[in-house]
């Protein structure tokens, strides 16, 4: 009996992975609210910022062929999939929505009340039935969060539940490792539940200046996300470039994912920020200047994220 063909689940419906011919942003936010202190900075508000976000994505489609955004805003992060669908339709860029829970400061009450099995069942219901009453189904579990070298007990519960939901539904898991720490512990928890490493992306590894850890994660078969490109207040792009080149030179180009993790409205180009296009306009030219050719760029920005999300081995562009 033949296995079903891999599909990519977007907010506007399923598409074939090989229909995505341009690059992807593997970890972004288009609508979110992480503002716990009242300053309003960690917000991309539906309505107030939607037009600017849409305009940026449309411009990147025109200039660089941007074809896909993996939007990792999940439960407790101000997720709004109706607005994601509107942005996707208006910008003509495919968007993958997420489900799961972020790290502990943003946990919702059901995490304390529920068992691992309860939480996994909640995620499976969203994946199979859609988010709320929208009918829009998530295409990835993420960004599943922890902080520190070892996840806190509630974070461990969420990671285990996410692995079980991934196994039940065929989706992959993208994590938030605060400041790049704890990726190995996340990987251990997820794989202990039976989730294969190739269905796991360990987030924010470009904030951890430890090439040995990156090699260990990649050697396991997991994806290593260099997904805060342009966030110079956390790490310089010079350091990111050095870390990425080290991973490529170690033979792990097929395990790297790239993105910018735009998570504040001040990062939008309309407000003077680096924008979603910093990866294409600033960082990738530096990668090319270091000797990386166009085929490898396509691997990093298109084939890797498509394989992570769907399991499909897409052809070279």
UniProtKB/TrEMBL annotation:
Coiled coil: none annotated. InterPro entries: Metal_Hydrolase, Phosphotriesterase. Gene3D superfamilies: Metal-dependent hydrolases. Pfam families: PTE (PF02126). Keywords: Hydrolase, Metal-binding. SUPFAM superfamilies: Metallo-dependent hydrolases. PANTHER family: PHOSPHOTRIESTERASE-RELATED, PHOSPHOTRIESTERASE-RELATED PROTEIN. Belongs to the metallo-dependent hydrolases superfamily. Phosphotriesterase family. This is Phosphotriesterase. It comes from Streptomyces castrisilvae.
């Amino acid at each position: 009996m033949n296995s079903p063909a891999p599909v990519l689940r977007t907010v506007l419906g399923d598409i074939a992975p090989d229909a995505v011919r341009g690059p992807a942003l593997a970890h972004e936010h288009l609508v979110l609210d992480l503002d716990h202190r009242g300053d309003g900075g960690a917000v991309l508000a539906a309505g107030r910022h939607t037009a600017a976000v849409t305009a940026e994505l449309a411009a990147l489609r025109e200039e660089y062929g941007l074809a896909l955004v993996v939007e990792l805003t999940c439960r407790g992060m101000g997720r709004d999939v109706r607005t994601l669908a509107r942005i996707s339709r208006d910008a003509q860029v495919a968007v993958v929505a997420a489900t799961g829970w972020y790290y502990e400061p943003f946990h919702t009450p059901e995490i304390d009340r529920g068992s691992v099995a309860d939480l996994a069942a909640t995620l499976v219901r969203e994946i199979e039935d859609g988010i709320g009453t929208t009918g829009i189904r998530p295409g990835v579990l993420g960004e599943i969060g922890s902080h520190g070298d070892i996840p806190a007990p509630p974070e461990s519960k969420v990671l285990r539940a996410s692995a079980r939901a991934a196994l039940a539904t065929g989706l992959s898991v993208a994590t938030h490792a605060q400041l790049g720490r704890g990726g190995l512990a996340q990987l251990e928890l997820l794989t202990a539940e039976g989730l294969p490493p190739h269905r796991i992306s360990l987030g924010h590894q470009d904030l951890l200046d430890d090439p040995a850890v990156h090699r260990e994660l990649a050697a396991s078969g997991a994806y290593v996300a260099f997904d805060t490109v342009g966030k110079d207040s956390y790490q310089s792009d010079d350091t990111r470039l050095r870390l990425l080149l080290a991973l490529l030179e170690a033979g792990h180009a097929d395990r790297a994912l790239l993105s910018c993790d735009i998570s504040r409205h001040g990062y939008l180009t309309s407000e003077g920020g680096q924008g979603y296009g910093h990866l294409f306009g600033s960082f990738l030219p530096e990668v090319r200047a270091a000797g990386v050719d166009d085929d490898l760029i396509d691997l990093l920005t298109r084939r890797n994220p498509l394989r992570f999300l769907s399991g499909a081995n897409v052809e070279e562009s």
